[in-house]
Amino acid sequence: MTAPDPDGLLAEQLLRLTRRVHRIQKRHLERRELGITPAQSRLLRTLAHYGSPPRMADLAERLEVVPRAVTTLVDGLEAHGKVRRVPDPANRRVIRIELTDEGRATLRELRAARRAAASEILAPLGEREREQLGELLNTLVDGPPGPPCEEGAARRPGDGGS
Amino acid sequence: MTAPDPDGLLAEQLLRLTRRVHRIQKRHLERRELGITPAQSRLLRTLAHYGSPPRMADLAERLEVVPRAVTTLVDGLEAHGKVRRVPDPANRRVIRIELTDEGRATLRELRAARRAAASEILAPLGEREREQLGELLNTLVDGPPGPPCEEGAARRPGDGGS
DNA sequence: TATTGTTATACTCTATAACTATA
DNA sequence: TATAGTTATAGAGTATAACAATA
């Protein structure tokens, strides 16, 4: 009974933190009254990482959602003038998403909101611990980019994976 | 330009991880076909931590959601026979939530699902790193139990908190 | 036929507000 | 009046499925 399931406990804490992170971020966003939601904020920040305007499908992959979800987010952002849909001349099926000037301005405010949220969430940690956490998160997030297991229910569903 | 906003980057990674954790947990839950959702699973696990059946309000506080949200979750769990609403004889306003035998059985399966999800999420980390992460999460999650800032907009909303 | 994005639809999760029944 | 939980409602977020346009 010393530690029957350390990873499970870890997962539970992660889930708890996860919820808190979302709630705190949401509150900070609402406080700025930018009229954008957490998911839209994430898309906007993701957009800033690209050198040239990405396709909808690129964003879906990066955000780890289905393309349909991106449509909704871009709809909202475009309605507020933060991004622009631009047809790709080389392939007329493709739509590229561009950041507008207003989008860039919003992004600056977003960074401030994100910093404030980070401060609140990370308050219990010291400098050294934040560095540690940062490294661990980098490993976690960038580590497994591959798909989880698409090959259906061939694997026994009850396999606990101990 | 060396590291203009380490906490902000940390927050971004945290947000990204947040989504992934949720998605992976959801997939593992669906795979078991227990008919319970991630939020219900969390409530069930939380329930197991109590020595005696908690009130709805206790659960709301522990789960960091409004009481109304607990009602929905308990409705679902009760419909599936996992929990039972028991009126408190001492205070007839109070309802206590009890785990049923079936709920306990489900909980065992849930632990397996959680472990499997944890394995997948934590795959990129070694033993030592998991321990580190565990400690950091404990500090983060249990650290700031107090309310964020209930006293309204008296504090300047734009205060970035640097 | 495969790819890209969309329209249509549905479900989970959570919030606020107003109400009921206690205390 | 304050507390505990509920009914009513709304919105964010995301999924699957069917479809149109293009390749």
Automatic annotation (TrEMBL), chains A, B:
Residues 138-162 are annotated as: Disordered. One of its GO terms (molecular function) is DNA-binding transcription factor activity. Pfam families: MarR. Residues 152-162 have a biased composition (Basic and acidic residues). InterPro entries: HTH_MarR-typ, MarR/SlyA-like, WH-like_DNA-bd_sf, WH_DNA-bd_sf. SMART domains: HTH_MARR. It comes from the Bacteria. GO terms for biological process: response to stress. Gene3D superfamilies: Winged helix-like DNA-binding domain superfamily/Winged helix DNA-binding domain. Residues 7-142 form the HTH marR-type domain. Signal peptide: none annotated. This is MarR family transcriptional regulator.
